[in-house]
Amino acid sequence: MNNKKLLLFVFVLGLSCSIFGQNPNNTPCVAGDAFFDAEFENSLTDMVFTSESMARSLPSSVDNSTSRFMPPIFNQWGSSSCVHCAEIGYVLTYELNRYRGVDAGSNWTGTESQRENLYHPFFTYNFVNNGDGRSPTGFGSGFKIVCENGCPSLNDYYDPVLNQHFNPGSSNASQWAFRRWMDGEEKYINASENKTRVFPNNMECYKITWGNTYETLTPLKRWLHNHNSSSNTGGIAVISVCMGSDSSGFPLFDWDTIQTGPGAGEKILTSWAPTGWHALTIVGYNDDICLSGDCSNPNPNTPLSDCEKGAFKVANSWGNNYTTTNGYIWVPYSLMANINKRAYTCVFEEEPEKLLFLSATIKHPKRNKIIIYVGRGDDALSSSPIPNQGDSQSFHIFKNSGGPFPMNGNDDNPQPIGL
Predict the structure, then answer these.
(1) First CA to last CA across the chain, in angstroms?
(2) What is the pTM of this model?
(3) Fewer CB under 10 Å: which end of the chain, C or N?
């Protein structure tokens, strides 16, 4: 009998690299907490709207921030983890809860019951930040990891260090929250139950694009309203924007307070910053938002830049920052003309029962020199994979990741992992 054998290979290398792609729409913004990954951008599939979604009349406003599936506002505490806050902390948490019909937890650092059905952005961020909370990461980098390996519940991932207020630039001790990797085979196995849908190109995201006129925002509104279906519960999505600060930390973008009408007393953006890529999460819209109370209604062909009325509601990840209202801020339709004209989101579905898991306990002083491959052997006695069969697979979470630190980011104790 010619028995096949699945092999785990751990390669120790001295080279790591990142892919820095071009901003697809050439929006005049540089640097910041995020960058464009060409591989991810090229993999995004245009969302094609169903007849059920198209048949639904859109209301004048949608607010998914009040949904029981929506998690509380997160605070990235000065780190450059905004992409993961948007993709994992908000979108993945919302999507998983929506699919399963469960309420999001109420507190990121609370009791075990308060942390139910939350998924922490540092799980993915810490695999791609080189062990430094100041490191920017690519748009899509959180979803890539979740596509392959899933994401643990906050209760599996939880550590008391997550209760601290972090300062990524202050001391080695404060970096522990951004270097920590989860240990425990069972926790990684549990995480695999929380994966986004895998498409043939091994990506899990759709993009929703718009143009230069008011009517081109309709597809994004459809997603927010009905999740591209006949559902009464909509979706949320990530956008890429410029919201940098000066050397003292003061924002370079402008904001104001809505004076009257819908949203009165709430914060609204009035301009983007000239620099500083950042990820925000769109959770709703309101066609009647008007900063001054004296705005004309747009028609379908009104240029976005000329729209006086209407705004999207977005979740930021700076806590209850003074530029927001309880962590949320309105983005006028007119400002949608001046950012990268695409939103992206993930879709979740249950996978078939998994038949095989791999576990290992690894000890190494510099985890960024490790790549883990899984391959199929020719027989039960093989020590190398079958060549040129396309069966070998590497994983983003263990691919020259995490910076020059021990496996758990803190000490030399062996690290149990699972795939």
Answers:
(1) 28
(2) 0.88
(3) N
